[in-house]
Amino acid sequence: MPRYTVHVRGEWLAVPCQDAQLTVGWLGREAVRRYIKNKPDNGGFTSVDDAQFLVRRCKGLGLLDNEDRLEVALEDNEFVEVVIEGDAMSPDFIPSQPEGVYLYSKYREPEKYIELDGDRLTTEDLVNLGKGRYKIKLTPTAEKRVQKSREVIDSIIKEKTVVYGITTGFGKFARTVIPINKLQELQVNLVRSHSSGVGKPLSPERCRMLLALRINVLAKGYSGISLETLKQVIEMFNASCLPYVPEKGTVGASGDLAPLSHLALGLIGEGKMWSPKSGWADAKYVLEAHGLKPVILKPKEGLALINGTQMITSLGCEAVERASAIARQADIVAALTLEVLKGTTKAFDTDIHALRPHRGQIEVAFRFRSLLDSDHHPSEIAESHRFCDHVQDAYTLRCCPQVHGVVNDTIAFVKNIITTELNSATDNPMVFANRGETISGGNFHGEYPAKALDYLAIGIHELAAISERRIERLCNPSLSELPAFLVAEGGLNSGFMIAHCTAAALVSENKALCHPSSVDSLSTSAATEDHVSMGGWAARKALRVIEHVEQVLAIELLAACQGIEFLRPLKTTTPLEKVYDLVRSVVRFGK
């Protein structure tokens, strides 16, 4: 018998259908009838006939025709949403799909795998896992390590040894010994009580990264999780069944407890879960739709799933990769601006930078030389002012290797810390199979990634700060020798006047966001956890700073391409002309 899972006003209803010849309209009415039946006030309806509604697929949000037969319009066990006309959205309402649903409507299950062993994951790998490009499987070595680690836990339980988090309570309750017959309940209670985060849920990409990274840490074999449970978690990842994880709530020690608990809550079939097939729905329905069973936690496994710095680190991976990309793009954009402002290439001479041999500075100067006027790539614009009496440029042009360079070195420094963190065991207690014992420690403390990501925000911000000043030079006719605000009919058109204001606003906002979150600490858990990293906010605000940097540089790129129009018919170098052509393929010249 076909069955459909239907979303009505935040409720999920399983609606069986005995006759596939029935219509989409019937399914909508039956779902509304069941919704009314479950509400003490009938959901505000006097009868089903009062409800005017639309029906749409959760995957892609495509509207369905109420007259279409179910056997034609829907697959068995498909997820659909009934939208009641005239409903105002509650602030607590969870939509069936995340923002940007169109990005997920074309999702295709990947065919390739990445093998995880807890030792070799890179930032690039994790970002690709987040984008859904790979499935996961464990290496044979990792499987053996996980099994041996679990044997230690089983031995502790059999011998009734008192060990933190396995046979005791947590935090302030670490001295409370739990009876053997309550150990599984202890783990479930832990996950439920710690699922206390707030805010928007992580996007599917970020939740994939979080889940993949937790799997990688568990694969190291120091967490005590069973191989059976770990393989269940991997199956959920491979099916893209992703729990509802609010972005706020971690203080970064003891690890990222709140977000990782929400992650674990979905894995045990509670709370909300998302998949490309279902959108947001009750976790038990999503798992059932994919032929998966909820995890039944064994002793220590709840703690194994929630204790670590994976929220900070997974967001940190995205930050590092996006920062690396925009840093390379910043050199290209700045080089184009220099051409438009008729700057000189002398400041990028090899001998100058050999005298101050910071790696980032040398790399940036090399990129500028590769992009600007040379025997290999001559520039007509550069040739037009070769013999002018201009001696040197403003700092925003002349000092790009020094300013952009330290940003590149900052990214490299942070990437090294994040890569180490990716492949680190951050549980407590640690399970050492070779010693046959568990040891309590502090690897869950997020100070390393927190400090690194604060540093990244400070470093990457400078790309926006210097870019905004170059935008000012492009727009100011007294500095650029170009029309005011890069528009021919000034007054009738305002040109880039307010685009520059937007860049200034973003740079100002970044100044506040660059205040380090890791300089703060608030004691928690009745002073048991009396120093924390605040790394979750460090990671989230680093991403906001990077987003603003991307936006400011996009404004500069548009302004530079606008400016070059006033130098035509002169051409710049071949590489920069290709950049111009790429921009003009999506944005036309503003007259």
UniProtKB/TrEMBL annotation:
GO CC list: cytoplasm
Protein's pathway: Amino-acid degradation; L-histidine degradation into L-glutamate; N-formimidoyl-L-glutamate from L-histidine: step 1/3
Biological processes, Gene Ontology terms: L-histidine catabolic process to glutamate and formamide; L-histidine catabolic process to glutamate and formate
Alphabetized SUPFAM superfamilies for the sequence: L-aspartase-like
Gene3D superfamilies, alphabetized: Fumarase/aspartase (Central domain) (1.20.200.10), Fumarase/aspartase (N-terminal domain) (1.10.275.10), Phosphatidylinositol 3-kinase Catalytic Subunit, Chain A, domain 1 (3.10.20.90)
PROSITE patterns per UniProt: PAL_HISTIDASE
Known catalytic reactions: L-histidine = trans-urocanate + NH4(+)
InterPro entries xref list: Aromatic_Lyase, Fumarase/histidase_N, HutH, L-Aspartase-like, Phe/His_NH3-lyase_AS
First and last residue of the signal peptide: none
Cross-referenced Pfam families: Lyase_aromatic (PF00221)
GO MF, one example: histidine ammonia-lyase activity
Alphabetically ordered keywords of this record: Histidine metabolism, Lyase, Phosphoprotein
Its EC number(s): 4.3.1.3
Similarity-based family: Belongs to the PAL/histidase family.
Name the UniProt record assigns to this protein: Histidine ammonia-lyase
Native species: Pan troglodytes (Chimpanzee)
